[in-house]
Amino acid sequence: MHRTGETGPWALVAALNAWALDTDWVDWVEIGGSLGRGAGDELSDVDAGIGVRGLADRPGRVDEALDAARGLAPLAAALVQQWDGGAAHLLCAYRDGRQLSLVVLDEAVRTGLPPQAIAAVDKSGRLARALDRDRWDPDEAAVREWAFLAWIAIGDAARHRLRDHPWRALASLTEARDRLWRLHAHALGLVYPEFGAVTVENAEAEPPQGIERTHPRDLSPGELRRALAATGGLLAPYTSGDLRDLADTVEHRVALLSE
Question: 8-131 falls under which CATH superfamily?
């Protein structure tokens, strides 16, 4: 995977792999993100996961793995996020600008390789088979939830602007747009639709037609009204049943915003 003479993020991957191969309690290393998709370049971050043998009985392994990651290159700063089940997520920013996002998991979490990922180290063969992408596809309830919450966010944005809270209104508009991107990614049949715009752009797919109109030129009531109306219009294909009643209610509130 790493070729002699390469630098940048692949050099970090090579260093991580070498450490994992030399560490008997690390079972596998998985590389995702742009590098995993084969679309990486010198600006790519390294999105990686490692499987630790018997992590539940050896929670100190997490700290050892995090220390090793910090030492892959001269470090600027790092952040550790503790996850449920003893797992952890380490974000490392190195002084040369490279970044590593490393998830430390129990080895048994993986029963195969997720889509758009590379098995960099696989000592016991846990990553030998490809996992079905369907497990990352939302069900009908999740899709409805995205549409429901998008409409709620539009209504929240209108309410905030009516109360003269423009920055809160913008935050709610952004939330609505983010959920619209998820719905669009799902409609296109893309893997990992929950990542929304990231998924669409990674796939080099077409954005929702007219998405630019959902961005206000300023935070005036009229501009927010137009942007919210545009967002609602793009949500229309995903709005049916009781969500239509919700949309009617929200659109009435949006109409209260003056030009």
Answer: Beta Polymerase, domain 2 (3.30.460.10)
CA–CA distance, 167 with 108 (Å, rounded to integer)? 44
Q: How many Å apart are CA 46 and CA 32, to the nearest integer?
A: 8
With a threshold of 0.85, does the pTM exceed it? yes
Domains in the chain: boundaries: 8-131, 136-255
Look at 70 and 3; give whichever has higher pLDDT. 70
SS3 236: helix
Query: Any idea which residue has 């990352």 for tokens?
Result: 136
pLDDT for 153: 98
Q: Is 136-255 a domain of CATH 1.20.120?
A: yes
Spatial distance between the Cα atoms of 114 and 192, rounded to a whole number of angstroms:
10
> Where is pLDDT greater, at 259 or 205?
205
Sequence-distant (≥ 6) Cβ neighbours of residue 48 within 8 angstroms? 13, 16, 29, 30, 31, 32, 100, 101, 102, 103, 120
Mean pLDDT of 207-223: 97
